Please model this.
Amino acid sequence: MIDVIVSGDVLRATTKAMVALVSEARLHFNSDGLHSRAVDPANVAMVIVTIPSTSFEVCKVDEEKVIGVDVNRIYDISKSIKSDELVELKIEDETTLKVKFGSVNYSVALIDPSAIRKEPKVPNLELPAKIVLDAGEFRKAILAADKISDHVVFRSDETGFYIEAEGDVDRIEFHMSDAELIEFNKGEARSMFSIEYLKEFVKLAGSGDVLTTYLGNNYPVRLVFDVCDGKVKVEYILAPRIEAE
Amino acid sequence: MIDVIVSGDVLRATTKAMVALVSEARLHFNSDGLHSRAVDPANVAMVIVTIPSTSFEVCKVDEEKVIGVDVNRIYDISKSIKSDELVELKIEDETTLKVKFGSVNYSVALIDPSAIRKEPKVPNLELPAKIVLDAGEFRKAILAADKISDHVVFRSDETGFYIEAEGDVDRIEFHMSDAELIEFNKGEARSMFSIEYLKEFVKLAGSGDVLTTYLGNNYPVRLVFDVCDGKVKVEYILAPRIEAE
Amino acid sequence: MIDVIVSGDVLRATTKAMVALVSEARLHFNSDGLHSRAVDPANVAMVIVTIPSTSFEVCKVDEEKVIGVDVNRIYDISKSIKSDELVELKIEDETTLKVKFGSVNYSVALIDPSAIRKEPKVPNLELPAKIVLDAGEFRKAILAADKISDHVVFRSDETGFYIEAEGDVDRIEFHMSDAELIEFNKGEARSMFSIEYLKEFVKLAGSGDVLTTYLGNNYPVRLVFDVCDGKVKVEYILAPRIEAE
Model:
């Protein structure tokens, strides 16, 4: 049996992170907490979500268990739970997830995990640049870039980290120097990405959240968001786009 | 002549309660205050609204009077009045209702009351269960149920009050025990209702407002809302739906 | 070279005022500050915007300069700048306006001023009535009138200032007496205007902003808004509509 209690914001952030890419997913419960990963139907991006057991108020997991859920449904439910309200998730048999908060009791039908697309392996990526910045600043840059283009270049060198976009007549450049970044190894790297995906990713990030970006050359990027005061770790891996010369 | 002064929130709540069911209605002014009732075109629900004379700042009613109004129009106007701003309603002849607040003077054409559908008699209902609860909690339950079904079961027995809905695969149950309810006579009752109507009803209810529910067995329900700090009483009577076995 | 620094709210208010009428405009920079005026495509209204040099944090204008810009684009950018955040506008050559705030650098392509419709001369109007009032109250009256009609009458006489609208069955009158107005010369005047335009104008006005109205008889009206704590002056001149008898 699984019986865990967590705050509303953690459940909301976790499911919000997943619905950016998929509508159904497998959740793994074990003594370390909750873990899930999934790839979007187009195979362009992967999401990896982790709630460590210490982020739960109560975390009773009798045995390791994998369940299949409609994450859209859980995300929908989570929107009516207040951020600091406690919500209980309970699985007593193979068919039902019980979601309980306040006077409300949801019974959500589980999906046979074998009917859900197999989880991907997390690829082994060697990424020379590591950039740590405020997630709210990153979000602002992505949303600004979205107004003039559908792709952005991430670039880093010893002068700092750059996000660049070019429209038909306009150009936007977001630049943070070493001093403005939380942490920076000054690695050199440059890759181009689709804003369509990045726009979805930044939805869960607010000012004050920390984003660690691992960047390579024409190589996938790893974006690791620490949200809900560090209670949830959300990692996205996004494939690059080919930059036309 | 009729010349009454009331706060913006009272006018707004009263008209909002009515537009949930009808677009035109008869308003009765007498020394007790203002009273109105109406049935929706499908004859499924009735609304009964009462503003006692003590809820008016000024209540000058020379003689009993019935007027016909386009409640949508008055509700529209009321939305631009602040909650604690005073608004004067004045009827000097048979043709015009004057609505005055701040520097604004509306003249709204009256409708011949005989052109509006006759008011219903309030039915005499014997309802065994009386449940008093926070209207905000009730609203939350109805909105949650709406996500998975188009009808709900209200049920009460000695263990408390239940609102239940079933979707194709999910189930939601809202439960408040005797201790969580403001007042409860532990009467046994069970009826099913359309969420479509309930959703409209709960629009005017916020946390802190008190809702008294009178429930029977496959019988209409009476929902009595005390809103605007008790200055307005809104009662809805809703016909049950037949529960398929 | 031009290099000025201004707060986000000033840039937003200025461009918002212009997009109410045009999408492209000529901006004049000189030692007095920034000035622009434009007429809408239908030749019904004119907007005149002035930011005096004292409203800039820094105002470096080497020589008088006229540039052509897509004001919609600048307004769009300005929406992502906080009100009290400083934004730098820089023109180093004939082709590009650089907009810089926080870590963001926009390069906006300039438009050849000769490709933009020639600015109008400001007409010389003799307007007998001068009415100074809270812009938020004016806005409220226009939005209320918009619900029942598509034109309004502005009227002033010794008893005060009136805004009147008539619908098919309803009528609304907004009245402020001498005592309620900030300043009033009691001039007699009356003209009718299109709400379609006025609705756009009042978008930039909030409670606390001051509006000076100069009114004549079947003659254009001048509406002078002082916004952003007086840092920006926005003037609209609106042609009257013929009042059918």
Notes: The longest helix of chain B spans residues 8-19. Residues 153 and 182 of chain B are 21 Å apart (CA to CA). Chain B is about 15% helix and 45% strand.
